[in-house]
Design brief:
By secondary structure, the protein is an alpha+beta fold. The chain has 2 domains: about 10-140, 60s Ribosomal Protein L30, Chain: A, CATH 3.30.1330; about 145-320, PurM-like C-terminal domain (Phosphoribosyl-aminoimidazole Synthetase, Chain A, domain 2, Alpha-Beta Complex), CATH 3.90.650. It contains 10 helices and 13 strands. The protein has helices at about 10-15, 60-75, 95-110, 165-175, 175-180, 185-190, 200-210, 220-235, 250-255, 275-285; strands at about 25-30, 35-40, 45-55, 80-90, 115-120, 130-140, 155-160, 215, 235-240, 270-275, 290-300, 305, 310. The strands form 2 sheets. It has a 7-stranded mixed sheet, with helices on both faces. A 6-stranded mixed sheet has the order 1-2-3-6-4-5, covered by helices on one side. Helix 3 links the parallel strand 4 and strand 5 (about 115-120). Helix 2 runs parallel beside helix 7 (about 200-210) and helix 4 (about 165-175) packs across helix 9. About 45% of the residues are buried.
Length: about 325
């Protein structure tokens, strides 16, 4: 099988279809594209998510905390804390564990969340350090947003920098090999994009504004995330590809490595659907969050990508980051 997330059709057939709901307190359970589970807790709901970090060799602690807290924020809810599991191969050192914990603690401090517990183990079952992180949040008044809530006629909004996470990972993990092909200043700018992978603020603003769907763009990039929003919602979407802004450093790295930036892992981008998209963008801009309208939700269950010519958008495949070969 290919590296990366299971294809959505396999995930649905083999994993999700085998899971049976047993408790009425589960408002939102496992579904293709859904970022979080939602559990009823009397006057509030508990929001939970979990993710591994496997593609990054550097900044894994920072990336792991952000991607899980981004999931919580995609429900329009503030993250409260995380549980962290660290699996380290025998070749790891105490300094490796210390570095990752420093990254985790610093990022939790930035987001004002707690490390609630976890597990740390040395095992020959992995050949490099693997993190598995679970994040939780809660919403008073049972207010939350799902991936599958898009409505016909909604504007599709993308916040943040497309492929920021993938660009930063590649620029850092492959720096020595890339610097013979790409200007070092460009590579350093690309590495700095790792500072822009949180969408917590954007998610909370959008949740307060009142939106129909939210989904943070991770593996599969922004096009994969848009596909998942439409699929989860039973809708189609018309995507304005030429309106999706891409940073110059991302373009250069992707062109050099023959990668598609729109399908490169993109923590730092939130996909949002709502009425009055321009009003939400104004609200986001007031908080110095970049955003653009990149599409429109349709009744027809088809995703159309338009840039000069129209073509149907395929489901997300293995992320472009797994195609890097230098």
């Amino acid at each position: 099988m290919k590296c990366g997330k299971l294809p959505n059709d396999v995930l649905e057939d083999i994993v999700i279809s085998s899971i049976k709901k047993k408790n009425k307190d589960i408002f939102v359970g496992p579904k293709v594209g859904e970022d979080c589970s939602i559990v009823d807790f009397d006057n509030e709901v508990l929001v939970l998510t979990t993710d591994p970090v496997t593609a990054a060799q550097n900044d894994a602690g920072k990336i792991g905390i952000h991607i899980c807290c981004n999931d919580i924020a995609s429900a329009g809810v503030s993250p409260l804390g995380v549980l962290v599991t660290i699996l380290a191969p025998p070749s790891s050192t105490i300094d490796d564990i210390k570095r990752i914990m420093n990254e985790i603690n610093e990022t939790c401090e930035e987001l004002n969340i707690d490390v609630l517990g976890g597990h740390t183990e040395v095992t020959d079952a992995v050949n490099r350090i693997v993190l598995s992180i679970t994040a939780i949040g809660k919403s008073r008044g049972k207010r939350y947003v799902t991936t599958g809530g898009a409505k016909t006629g909604d504007d599709v909004i993308i916040t943040g920098n497309v492929a920021a996470e993938g660009t930063a990972i590649i620029a850092k993990d492959y720096y020595e090999k890339l610097k013979v092909k790409i200007n070092e200043e460009i590579l350093l700018k690309a590495q700095n994009l790792i500072k822009d992978i949180s969408v917590v603020k954007a998610g909370l603003i959008a949740g307060e504004f009142g939106v129909n769907a939210m989904h943070d763009a991770t593996e599969g990039g922004v096009l994969g995330a848009i596909w998942e929003v439409a699929q989860s919602s039973g809708k189609g979407v018309y995507v304005y590809e030429d309106k999706i802004a891409i940073k110059e450093e991302t373009k250069i790295i992707c062109d050099t490595l023959n990668l598609d930036p729109l399908r490169l892992i993109s923590s730092g981008c939130m996909i949002i659907t709502c009425k009055n998209g321009e009003e939400l963008i104004k609200r986001l801009n007031e908080h110095k969050i970049e955003a653009c309208i990149a599409g429109k939700i349709t009744d027809e269950e088809k995703i159309i990508l338009s840039k000069g010519e129209e073509k149907e958008l395929s489901p997300p495949d293995s992320d472009e980051i797994y195609r890097v070969n230098i």
